[in-house]
């Protein structure tokens, strides 16, 4: 397998973290999103939506969207639950992550830490909106995690992996996790899982 | 089953359309999102994220996120494919829909047609951004549908249902579908599926 990815990407890190848990070997292909490398004709053949991560299977097929890749890799593993309703709930949290969390928490971090936002009145108003909506998403997580160890079925799985990726970097987007005690406890439980790798320390096997 | 939903919502319409195809009966519970009815304590117990649609199962469990509901309802039906990689590709398009399509195509429609956008410099700049990003999403669909009848595995399924919901209403968000011939052909194929109901004509069975 080959993983096309940008090293600072939390969406890519989700996939690297699951691959580390699974002990799967793969080739890492860094793609520089800041230099337009996801918009070249050759990259658009892999993913017409021009985004990383993209997983290339050994038979040459491509799969895009970080959470679809998590689904694909987790099948028949302990990171995907057995029960049909548990599975649907995992997907509920994966869609929550991509709709309510990532566009706010990750985008604020991207602007502030990765890209360095151009400071215009429009951009700073937009950043304030993203941060307010990101806090609302963190509050939803906090409420759900109060009294629960993990997001679904009491067990660590791909909904935790997906939500961990940008939540543990939220401070880089200007979010303060101090008021979120349940989230902080959960972050520590995720970090203590066997085979955990950080966004900085992972290495393709 | 009970479906908590807002009649003009395309996200809700996805679920209504699949339920119509499946011939499943359910009780429709209208929720007025414009009057804050998704932010009451009783609604937040159903979905802490305060959004419709929410499906209540007969045993009282709740499931949120339109595309997670599509997944749940489509299992062991012709609208969910058998092959593992086809399944992963369905999810790829469902995540594309919630990340790259809905926040732009549906949001532009919501502002212009449902909520009537307050016309400030900030909002009109934001609308222009949404429309540019929405056109980019439509271009990704157009490229994929050129030479294909449906999104995955040559067969109508939940990725088509999810993407149809707001694409067929794109004009209400200021999008012109005239240049998108492959999309227009696909919209007609979706409309001709047995059991199709429009967003206006559906009725809870």
Description:
The structure is a homodimer of 205-residue chains. Chain A is built from seven helices and four strands, in the order E-H-E-H-E-E-H-H-H-H-H. The first copy, chain A, has 205 residues and is α+β, with helices and mostly antiparallel strands. Chain A has two domains: 2-74, Glutaredoxin (3-Layer(aba) Sandwich); 84-191, Glutathione S-transferase Yfyf (Class Pi), Chain A, domain 2, CATH 1.20.1050.10. In chain A, helix 1 (10-22) runs parallel beside helix 3 (66-74), helix 1 crosses helix 6 (158-167) and helix 5 (121-145) packs across helix 7. Chain A is globular and about 45 Å long. The mean pLDDT of chain A is 96.
Keywords:
homodimer; 205 residues; alpha+beta; Glutaredoxin; Glutathione S-transferase Yfyf (Class Pi), Chain A, domain 2; 2 domains; four-stranded mixed beta sheet; globular
Task: Give the SSE map.
The structure is a homodimer of 205-residue chains.
Chain A (H helix, E strand, L loop, with lengths): L1 E4 L4 H13 L4 E4 L10 H6 L7 E3 L5 E3 L1 H9 L9 H31 L6 H25 L12 H10 L13 H11 L14
Parallel strand pairs in A: 1-2
Antiparallel strand pairs in A: 1-3, 3-4
Brief summary of the model shown:
The first copy, chain A, has 205 residues and is an alpha+beta fold.
CATH topology of the largest domain in chain A: Glutathione S-transferase Yfyf (Class Pi), Chain A, domain 2
Q: How widely separated are the two ends of chain A?
A: 11 Å
- Given helix and strand content, the structural type of chain A is alpha+beta
Q: In percent, how helical is the residue content of chain A?
A: 40-55%
Largest interface, chains and sizes? A-B, 36 and 36 residues
* Quaternary class: homodimer
Strand content of chain A: 5-15%
What's the main sheet of chain A like? 4 strands, mixed
* Second CATH tier, the architecture of the largest domain in chain A: Up-down Bundle
Whole-number mean pLDDT of chain A? 96
């Amino acid at each position: 397998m080959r993983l096309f990815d940008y090293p600072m990407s939390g969406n890519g890190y989700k996939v690297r973290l699951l691959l580390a848990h699974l002990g799967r070997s793969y080739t890492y292909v860094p793609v520089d999103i800041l230099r337009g490398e996801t918009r070249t004709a050759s990259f658009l053949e892999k993913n017409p939506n021009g985004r990383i991560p993209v997983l290339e299977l050994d038979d040459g097929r491509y799969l895009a969207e970080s959470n679809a890749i998590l689904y694909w890799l987790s099948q028949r593993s302990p990171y995907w639950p057995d029960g049909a309703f548990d599975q649907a709930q995992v997907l509920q949290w994966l869609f929550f992550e991509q709709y309510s969390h990532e566009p706010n928490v990750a985008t604020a971090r991207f602007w502030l830490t990765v890209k360095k936002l151009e400071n215009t009145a429009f951009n700073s108003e937009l950043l304030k909106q993203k941060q307010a909506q990101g806090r609302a998403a963190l509050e939803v997580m906090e409420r759900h995690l109060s009294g629960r160890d993990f997001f679904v079925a009491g067990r660590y799985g791909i909904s935790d992996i997906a939500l961990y990726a940008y939540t543990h970097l939220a401070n880089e987007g200007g979010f303060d996790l101090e008021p979120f005690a349940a989230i902080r406890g959960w972050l520590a439980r995720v970090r203590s899982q066997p085979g955990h790798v950080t966004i900085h320390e992972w290495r393709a096997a």
